[in-house]
Design a protein that fits this description.
The protein is globular. The protein is built from 5 helices and 11 strands; from the N terminus they run ββββαβββαββαβαβα. The chain is of the alpha/beta class and 251 residues long. The chain has one domain: Rossmann fold (3-Layer(aba) Sandwich). The longest helix is centred in the C-terminal third of the chain and has 30 residues. The mean pLDDT is 94. α1 runs parallel beside α4 and α2 packs across α5. The structure holds hypoxanthine. The site of hypoxanthine has 12 residues, from β5, β10 and β11.
């Protein structure tokens, strides 16, 4: 079963035929909102708005463990996460879609593992390739079929937020090899791996990162929100195509 986690600008999937909603509970607390179960292009999916349906949960307060745990409990084995990012690499202009292939974790103070008790059954998960290869490829081929430009690969720097970054921080992330910066990639990516789920992300560049492009002295959140909203139609076109491919695969 496929799940789609929506971020800024994506609190609903326009063409999802909703069959039911379910409030979930987990040993880690409640997920960001009720799960929406439905059919997207003949494919059963679960949709969850990461920041809540009213966009009220900031990135550092998202209960990532509850979200992933509850999805896993529902039989989800593939997760496509949509998130917005600031572009660090010169070609990552606002409006660009990219499927990251690596991630660096700069977050702190988040509940970032299910192995939080002394327990001999804990696992050192392999995180060499943080994103699922097959799912990444499916997104990229679906984007081509949907005639949407979507870049293949890039390093995502995950910060805690909710504040944006200083120019010096962005310079540091770039020296470290980061191409884009966002606030929700971790621990979502590693928690999915802990639960043996395939996880890939569509990152939507909504602004130049601090000190890049036209952002030399500040970021307008109004522009960020508008850019996010405008890009989500293209993201949905890709997601719908992913579902066609998935449905074909199953049959
Ligand atoms: N920095 C951090 N997170 C973000 C940004 C940014 O510039 N844009 C969207 N999410």
């Amino acid at each position: 079963m496929l799940a789609i986690i929506g971020g800024r600008g994506l609190t609903e999937l326009a063409n999802l035929e909703i069959t039911h909603r379910q409030v979930m509970r987990t040993p880690f607390g409640e997920p960001s909102g009720a799960f929406l179960f439905g059919i997207l292009n003949q494919q059963e999916v679960i949709f969850l708005a990461r920041h809540g349906y009213g966009y009220t949960i900031p990135p550092h307060l998202v209960n990532y463990r509850a979200n992933l745990w509850a999805l896993s409990e529902q039989g989800v084995d593939q997760v496509i996460a949509v998130s917005t990012v600031g572009g660090i690499r010169a070609d990552l202009l606002p409006g660009t879609l990219v499927v990251p292939d690596q991630i660096i974790d700069y977050t702190h103070g988040r509940e970032d593992t299910f192995f939080s008790m002394r327990d001999s059954s804990y696992k050192n998960i392999d995180f060499t390739l943080p994103y699922a290869r097959r799912l990444r490829s499916r997104i990229i081929s679906s984007a081509a079929q949907a005639q949407q430009i979507c870049l293949d690969g890039g390093v995502y720097a995950a910060t805690s937020g909710p504040r944006l970054d200083s120019i010096a921080e962005i310079n540091r992330y770039q020296r470290d090899g980061a191409d884009m910066v966002g606030m929700t990639g971790m621990p979502e990516t590693s928690l999915a791996r802990e639960l043996d789920m395939d996880y890939a992300s569509i990152a939507v560049v909504v602004n130049y990162a601090a000190g890049r492009g036209d952002n030399q002295s500040g970021i307008s959140m109004e522009v960020v929100n508008t850019t996010a909203r405008l890009a989500m139609g293209r993201v949905c076109a890709i997601l719908e195509r992913v579902c066609v491919e998935e449905a074909c695969d199953v049959s």
